[in-house]
Specification:
Blueprint: H1 3-10, H2 14-22, E1 30-31, E2 37-38, H3 41-55, H4 60-70, H5 78-111, H6 122-128
Length: about 130
């Protein structure tokens, strides 16, 4: 298939496919005599893997590591589990940060602001306060 067909089959922009080729996540495609890229089922599977990993929030480096592991089917899966566990810890940390951010914004919004000028605005004052 050509790049446009791969794009449609995986719901991936052509520019993204080219980017993944450029950084080595996807191999360089076979080219026709006229220079057009051609792809096979293995490219579709690999691109779907990359897209799913990115959807789950794995970084490019993590995806690269996971792909390298997937390319060694007899290898123990402990390394993949470790990558997933580290990623989960990162996600949980971000959730804690987002929860704290939500609480802070809710407190600012709940306080309301009846000031007539920005100089007296409680929202602006709360944002200007140093973080604790």
């Amino acid at each position: 298939m050509q790049i446009g067909e791969l794009s449609r089959a995986t719901d991936t922009k052509v520019t993204t496919i080219r980017f993944y080729e450029e950084i080595g996540l996807l191999g360089q495609p076979v080219r026709t005599a006229s220079g057009r890229r051609t792809y096979g089922l293995s490219d579709t599977d690999r691109l779907n893997f990359i897209r799913n990993a990115r959807r789950l929030g794995f970084s490019i480096d993590e995806v690269r590591s996971l792909l390298a592991l997937a390319d060694q089917p007899e290898r123990d899966c402990g390394d993949a589990a470790n990558i997933a566990a580290r990623h989960l810890a990162d996600v949980e940390q971000r959730l804690r940060q987002l929860s704290a951010l939500r609480d802070e914004l809710a407190a600012m919004s709940a306080a309301g602001c009846c000031a007539k000028t920005m100089a007296e605005c409680r929202v602006i004052q709360a944002i200007a306060r140093p973080a604790v």
